[in-house]
Amino acid sequence: MNFKKITDSYHFYAIITILCWAVAPVLTRLCHRHFSAMPIGFLRYLISSFLIILLLIIKKTKFPSIKDLPWLIASAATGFSLYMVMFNYGTQYVESATTSVMMATSPLITALLSFFLFKEALSKNQWLAILIEFIGIIILTVVGNGFSLNIGTLWLFGASFLLSVYNLIQRILTKKYSGFQVTAFSILIGTLMLSFSAPQSFRELKTAPPNQIFYLLILGIFTSTIAYIAWSTAFQKAEKTSQVSNYMFFNPLLSGILAFFIAGEIPDSTTYIGGILILLGMWLFNHGQAIQPKAKIHSH
Fold it and tell me: What's the pTM?
C-alpha cells in the first residue's frame, strides 16, 4: 500500500486526532481529583505551548499575516480557551455518558453551520448517516448508563457549539496556512487567554503527585499538540468541513474500547449495537454515493 497516498488523505489525519482525543475525557476526569477546572486547561496548553515553540524554531515557521490575527484569535477562543473552560466545567457536573452525547452533537452542528454559511450541501444518504451515527451514540452511552440534565449539560453544549465554530474557522484558515501553522499560533494565543489562572495553576502544580503530572503531559502532548495539528491538516486536505467533523462520532466508541483495555470494563450489548451503528453511519457517509450512481454530487 502506498504510504504517501495514505498520508495525502484527510482520513489519516482525522483518525490520528480521534485516537488522541479518545483518552481526553478519562484523563481530564482523573486530573479533577487534584486540579481545579481552570488550571487543567491552562497547564495542558502551557505544556503544549513549550512543544509548539520548539517546533516553530526547528521548522523556521513564518508568522501569519497581521490581517489574519482576528481569525487566529477566534480560532484560539473557540478551540482552546473558551472551549476548554466550558468543557472542564461541564465534566465536573455530569457523567461520562452525558459528556459523550453532548459532545457528539458537534458534527451535526458543524454540518448545519457548513450548509448555511458555506453552502456545503450533503446528500440524503449523508444526512441519514449522521442520524444513524447519533442514534448509535445514544444507544452506546445512554441506554443502561443514564443521562443527566443539569448545569453541566449546558456547559457541554456550549463547548460543543464552540468546537463546531472552530471546525469552520479551520476550513477558512487552512486555505492560506498549513495545519501546523494554524494550530501552533491558535494554541499560543489560547494559552495566553488562559494565563489569568496561572497563579492558581502553579500553586496546585506544586502539590501535584507524579501521576497527575503524567496525565497533564499526555493531555498537553497528545490530545492537544499532535491531535490539533492533525485535525487542522485534515481540514486542509478535505473537500468539505463535515467530512472531517463526522469522525467525532467515533470518540465515544473508542473511549469505550479504551475503558476495556485500560480499566477492564466489560462492554455490554449496547456497546456492540451502538458501535455497529456508528461504523455503519460512517461507511454510509463516505461511500453512500456509490449506491446512488445517478445522484448529482454538489460541487463548488
Answer: 0.79
Residue 294: per-residue pLDDT = 44
Q: Cα dist. 85→35, 156, 158, 249 in Å? A: 13, 10, 10, 22
Residue 122 near residue 70 (C-beta atoms within 8 A):
no
How far is residue 50's CA from residue 48's CA, in Å, rounded to a whole number?
Answer: 6
With b meaning 16 or more CB within 10 Å and e meaning fewer, what string describes 265-284?
eeeeebbeebbebbbebbeb
203-223 mean pLDDT: 95
Listed in sequence order, the residues at least 6 apart from 286 whose beta carbon sits closer than 8 Å to its beta carbon are 243
- Nine-digit cell string for 204: 496546585
Q: Is the pLDDT of residue 49 over 90?
A: yes
Rounded-to-5 percentages of helix, strand, coil across the chain: 80, 0, 20
Query: Would you list the DSSP string of 36-100?
Result: -HHHHHHHHHHHHHHHHHHHHHHHTPPPPPGGGHHHHHHHHIIIIIHHHHHHHHHHHHS-HHHHH
- Of 185 and 300, more confident: 185
